[in-house]
């Protein structure tokens, strides 16, 4: 199958540091190539891939200080994707809804994976206006605000099986990995660790939009006892950071669409203590791969009994549900089910 993979341009594929969507795009692209498919990746020029790379910008825009208007680059990419559309059996978009008007009118063989939250009023209005766009959700919870859309499947993210290996013995600290932002609630993580009497390591990036929140709300808390701010880390650092922790804290305060860090921890054999909201109950098996909690008291109690969880069973939970091989097969089934793809295949035959 000839597949176009259209990535956001904010990060390279895979990202140098933080970047959930581009990381998933990379895993999926490389696995599809490994399985023998002809994949073209539209992405930043500093991406690393075995697919055919169509560089749309010199490097990921987040790390490019000269970029003043990221949408301009995405608009040009869309035009190039449309121009080359006849070359592909399917075009897989990961850039939210930006292509919807063009895809509808040109009748592209397109599939869109939505990676973000869908509960904002403006986002709901977009999906009500384009109810025919074939979509994939990354959790069932994610699609709830626009349940009437043209959902073709829920496909959970997956990681290469050997990317992260399990640590057999738990470490002596709690881990927080992700973004410093109000919805990720690093303040909760700090309070939980301090109440439990366990050191906390925070590995996180600070986006420009969250800089004031970090300076005003979080930086003062970093001077507290047992708190270590590591900063932003890359892929190569995750095995030691996550695998060396007794547990990952995921104290979110928003409808999380997926939460890639939860399965990264799972791959390391590290259980997760997470708030029961958004996708979390779909990802974490309560009492098996982690604990689901509803408040800080529950989280502190979960820390106290985290030793009851078997880290080998946590790793098995990853292998059973969250490998890239399973993710790629799920997507291939959806590709084959698209009307535009089926019609094109018949014409070729």
From TrEMBL:
This is Glycosyltransferase family 4 protein. Pfam families: Glyco_transf_4 (PF13439), Glycos_transf_1 (PF00534). Residues 173-313 form the Glycosyl transferase family domain. InterPro entries: Glyco_trans_1, Glyco_trans_4-like_N. It comes from Pendulispora albinea. Residues 18-125 form the Glycosyltransferase subfamily 4-like N-terminal domain. SUPFAM superfamilies: UDP-Glycosyltransferase/glycogen phosphorylase.
């Amino acid at each position: 199958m000839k597949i176009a993979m259209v990535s956001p341009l904010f990060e390279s594929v895979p990202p140098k540091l933080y970047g959930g969507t581009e990381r998933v795009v990379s895993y999926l692209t490389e696995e599809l190539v490994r399985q023998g498919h002809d994949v073209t990746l539209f992405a930043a020029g500093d991406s690393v891939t075995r697919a055919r790379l169509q560089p749309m910008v010199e490097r990921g825009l987040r790390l490019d200080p000269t970029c003043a208007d990221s949408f301009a680059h995405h608009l040009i990419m869309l035009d190039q994707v449309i121009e080359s559309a006849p070359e592909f059996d399917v075009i897989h978009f990961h850039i939210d809804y930006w292509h919807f008007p063009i895809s509808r009118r040109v009748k592209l063989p397109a599939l869109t994976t939505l990676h973000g939250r869908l509960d904002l009023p403006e986002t709901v209005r977009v999906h009500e206006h384009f109810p025919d766009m074939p979509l994939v959700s990354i959790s069932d919870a994610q699609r709830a605000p626009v349940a009437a859309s043209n959902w073709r499947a829920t496909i959970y993210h997956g990681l290469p099986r050997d990317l992260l290996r399990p640590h057999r013995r738990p470490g002596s600290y709690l881990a927080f990995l992700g973004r410093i932002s109000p919805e990720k609630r690093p303040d909760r993580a700090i309070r939980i660790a301090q109440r439990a009497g366990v050191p906390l390591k925070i590995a996180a990036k600070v986006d420009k939009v969250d800089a004031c929140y970090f300076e005003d709300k979080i930086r003062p808390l970093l001077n507290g006892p047992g708190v270590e701010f590591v900063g932003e880390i890359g892929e190569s650092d995750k095995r030691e950071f996550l695998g060396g922790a007794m547990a990952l804290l995921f104290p979110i305060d928003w409808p999380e669409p997926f939460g890639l860090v939860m399965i990264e921890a799972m791959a390391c054999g590290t259980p997760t203590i997470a708030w029961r909201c958004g996708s979390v109950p779909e990802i974490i098996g309560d009492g098996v791969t982690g604990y689901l909690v509803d408040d800080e008291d529950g989280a502190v109690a979960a820390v106290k009994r985290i030793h009851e969880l078997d880290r080998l069973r946590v790793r098995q939970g990853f292998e059973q549900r969250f490998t890239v091989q399973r993710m790629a097969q799920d997507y291939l089934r959806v590709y084959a089910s698209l009307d535009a793809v089926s019609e094109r295949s018949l014409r070729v035959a």
